[in-house]
């Protein structure tokens, strides 16, 4: 009895372990907002900008370009995604509308960042970044047409990233750092058969590294390049079922978040203008398949070590292209502009309502104002035009499929205060 029902339930359970927080603001389940000053430029040129302590995350080598002393940047990002499902011929168990089409799967979220840098001798700099690189949340109405595919998906990460920079010469600096990243996930969905609502909570800590180089190519132009490694997790947690407590079990799954590499250019084009551009590659092809494994025995787990499900994602590597400009309005105020194109790693065959991601185009603007000799305030806004995301997904052995598309968009409002001392 349990076999087929368990497999269908674990399909949903495993999705959260694959990072299924579909309110993310970059390709896949990454969050692209890691500094407040970058929002107004659509984060173009991040690896070469070196404007504030946020460079400790984007390119540790850039810490060498900051003025001597200590620098702190604190940012808050208010994010509002929208994911609205439109039915286009769902069949079988998904044909009946239930309570509707799920409402808006997106909701408001507040994402903080903090960065710090300081001198360590004539040529050394130390930095520390606290960021949220992956996550956010989707939640659909109870009883909606696609409740078998998911009700709530939430993933949270916190990344601690100490780093060092060394100035090789007046023109070249290098940097490196390590990451300690905690991931926490929760998922609910309607399970088939007598199991009721299934809930999964799982977490783990993973480790990675990042490298960077900054080159002052000409007196007015610098080039930055950075690499951030993969981070491997073995998530462990508990699966519970509202209508069958005897089915509650411990589960685990291996997950590897992708590596990435960026190349950025920043150039001063006269007394009023600063221009920037970047290209970023992300290795999302590491997310191909996920096996969800029983870690204990219960009514849904016949044996510890048995596989509950094998989930296919078949994601591809992606590219992000961005360009931006700053205009110096006066000695204290700077206006920012930016556009970017961000690819999705998903595809129309394997895409899930838990992650209705698609290609997106960023349009951004912002303003920086120097409050004092030591204090700077940044505010930025970005709108993401996201392509409609088609889904055609099933939950065997339930008959039929959820067929339709999601109308998506996202808005980001960022505020950052930077202080030097």
**What is the CATH H-level superfamily?**
Outer membrane protein transport protein (OMPP1/FadL/TodX)
Strand content: over 45%
CATH top level class name: Mainly Beta
The neighbouring-strand order within the major sheet is 1-2-3-5-6-7-8-11-12-15-16-17-18-20
Given helix and strand content, the structural type is: mainly beta
Rg is 23 Å
Characterize the biggest β-sheet.
14 strands, antiparallel, barrel
Number of domains: 1
Helix-strand pattern: HHHHEEEEEEEEEEEEEEEEEEEE
Point out poorly predicted stretches. Answer: 1-23
Q: Compute the number of helices.
A: 4
| Topology, number of strands | 20
What's the overall average pLDDT, rounded? 90
Assigned CATH architecture: Beta Barrel
In CATH, the topology is named: Porin
Task: Give an account of the 3D structure.
- The N and C termini lie far apart (67 Å).
- Mean pLDDT is 90; it is low at 1-23.
- The chain contains four helices and 20 strands.
- The chain has helices at 2-17, 36-39, 46-49, 55-58, and strands spanning 71-87, 109-119, 124-131, 135-139, 152-167, 172-190, 197-218, 221-228, 231-241, 249-257, 260-269, 273-282, 289-294, 307-312, 318-328, 333-342, 360-370, 375-386, 389-393, 402-420.
- It has a 14-stranded antiparallel beta barrel with strand order 1-2-3-5-6-7-8-11-12-15-16-17-18-20.
- The protein is mostly beta strands and 421 residues long.
- It has a single domain (2-420), classed as Outer membrane protein transport protein (OMPP1/FadL/TodX) (Porin, Beta Barrel), CATH 2.40.160.60.
Concise overview:
The chain is mainly beta and 421 residues long. The chain has 4 helices and 20 strands.
